[in-house]
Design brief:
Elements: H1 2-20, E1 27-35, E2 37-39, E3 42-52, E4 71-80, H2 83-86, E5 98-105, H3 127-133, E6 153-158, E7 165-167, E8 171-174, E9 179-187, E10 196-204, H4 215-241, H5 248-277, H6 282-307, H7 321-343, H8 356-387, H9 390-422, H10 434-454, H11 472-481, H12 487-518
Antiparallel strand pairs: 1-10, 2-3, 3-9, 4-7, 4-8, 4-10, 5-6, 5-9
Length: 519
């Protein structure tokens, strides 16, 4: 336990030091021969999407890390076209292919493209649209924003002669308005099909490398780490004090607390690293999401085994052990795959949603777990009522109420999450999107705190353990309030207790055997 306390203290020091370390700023989107794809009458490549906070009004002076500026910078961007495409042009041609980089804020999305006579919307200007819109044929249609006539921003790059390669001039677009910004590289030249691109863009927020949606999560995980650290100190202080009376259930709770602290700390440092480098290393992120998947799995199995009465009304899970372990392995794999899909290598604020095939197994397993948990709780409560174990029964009723509140809150939040995403397809409410992720971590911590409160280590911990006898709690409760002055009365009570114990043991054995069959 001294080792645990030392580790917790070390984590506290690391968090305090990390919080004081100056941070660089931006998010790096790298492209490695990325192919363009055909969309309507254009070929295009998405360069990224991020929420960016406007530059500070007093940002001035030389460029440095914490200068309060926000911008999108183009660095070493190069385009390649096919040899066949290049051979269609003379080696003396001045401009033999146009690529346009266009940056626009989500609210200006309708200012890109147009349609002639109510027909299909086109990105590139056509002869009909040139007459209607006044655009230039062969270029992207752009209408000035009502907020700033200089937006959307278009940067042009031309191929020269019959070269298969061209390079974009280094450029920087300053961000003066907070919003969700999108970058696309577009060509309206039908001869440039098969176009590829390499290089990188640097998206700078005034406060860090993190994309706008992710930035609040770094602070959130710092405070969550502090919360888990505080819970760890309180729990393990009691654990050390009453270590002779510790139950297996309390060891499981200790494991979940340790995993939660480890996960929140890893998430914080992963975001801190992202903030410092602008990239998310696959190895680090994979390690973090794996720890998270283990914590989620162990937490759910803990709630399930507690609901079954493990260590309280039954000494082991018996024939259910293999089924519980199988469910745990299945849930871990499903959660790991979903977390990797959502987080590993993810930089964009509008990165592809997790595949439906990965979301459905998690939803199904969670629903199955909830059903199994409440079914088991119902049987455990029946056993405790039959045994007249008032203390244990009171704890389990409180636990059941806490779980019911958690399930109602979860279902309500899922409904809100669906509504949030359905009404914000272009992520314009990105500044509050972090709450969607944060809610589940907060709910897990609250439920863990409830379990820590109900099964806190104490000198009477063994009262909650499986004893194989009925009426223990009632007899103990009576002994605390009443004295036994008459020996005959004590003998009568003792005889009654023995008869109740025999009856309860028979009930327990039959019920557990029947439950194993049903499960």
């Amino acid at each position: 336990m001294d080792l645990v306390a030392a580790a917790a203290a070390a984590i506290l020091v690391l968090l305090a030091v990390a919080a004081a370390v100056p941070r660089t700023a931006a998010s790096i989107h790298a492209y490695d021969l990325e192919p363009f794809r055909e969309v309507g009458n254009s070929v295009l490549l998405s360069g990224g999407s991020e929420g960016i906070v406007a530059s500070d009004l007093d940002a001035r002076g030389p460029f440095r890390i914490e200068d309060g500026r926000a911008y999108i910078k183009f660095d070493n961007i190069a385009f390649w076209r096919s040899k066949e495409s290049a051979e269609q042009h003379s080696n003396m041609g001045h401009s033999t292919g146009l690529i346009q980089a266009i940056i626009f804020e989500a609210s200006d999305r309708d200012n890109i493209g147009g349609s002639a006579y109510g027909g299909q919307r086109s990105i590139c200007c056509t002869p009909d649209l040139a007459k209607l819109e006044g655009c230039k044929q062969g270029e992207v249609i752009r209408r000035p924003s009502s907020m700033d006539p200089n937006w959307p921003v278009i940067l042009s790059t031309h191929f020269r002669a019959d070269y298969i390669f061209t390079k974009m001039e280094p450029n920087q677009v300053n961000i003066t308005k907070t919003g969700m910004y999108n970058l696309f590289f577009i060509s309206c030249d039908p001869k440039l099909r098969g176009l590829t691109m390499s290089g990188k863009t640097i998206w700078k927020n005034p406060d860090g490398y993190l994309p706008g949606r992710m930035a609040p999560l770094m602070k959130f995980y710092f405070f969550m780490s502090m919360a888990y650290l505080a819970l760890s100190f309180i729990w393990f202080a009691q654990y050390i004090r009453f270590w002779r009376d510790i139950l297996p259930l309390q060891n499981c709770i200790s494991l979940v607390i340790a995993l939660g602290l480890f996960e929140m700390t890893l998430w914080y440092f992963e975001y801190l690293n992202f903030n410092d480098t602008g990239v998310r290393p696959v190895g680090i992120t994979t390690w973090v999401v794996t720890v998270g998947a283990v914590r989620k799995t162990v937490s759910r199995l803990l709630i399930l085994t507690v609901s079954m009465g493990y260590g309280v009304v039954r000494p082991t899970l018996g024939g259910l052990t293999s089924k519980v372990l199988l469910l745990g392995v299945t849930y871990f794999l499903a959660s790991e795959l979903l977390s990797i899909t959502e987080n590993v290598g993810t930089i964009n604020d509008i990165s592809g949603k997790a595949k439906l095939l990965l979301v459905l197994p998690n939803a199904f397993l969670d629903a199955f777990l909830i059903l199994w948990i409440f079914t088991s709780l119902s049987r455990t409560l029946e056993k405790l009522q039959a045994r007249r174990s008032s203390v244990k029964l009171d704890i389990y009723r409180k636990f059941t109420n806490a779980l019911a509140v958690a399930v109602i809150a979860s279902v309500s939040w899922i409904g809100y999450e669906v509504y949030f995403k359905a009404t914000d397809p272009f992520s314009e409410r990105w500044q509050s999107a972090w709450i969607i992720t944060a809610f589940w971590d907060i709910l897990s911590l609250v439920l863990l705190c409830v379990m820590c409160y109900l099964w806190a280590p104490s000198q009477s911990s063994q009262r909650y353990a499986y004893s194989g006898e009925a009426g223990d709690d009632d007899e103990e409760a009576q002994s605390l309030t009443k004295g036994t002055s008459d020996g005959n009365i004590g003998l009568v009570k003792l005889d009654k207790k023995e008869r109740n114990a025999d009856h309860a043991d028979a009930f327990s054995l039959e019920d557990e055997a029947e439950e194993d069959k049903l499960e």
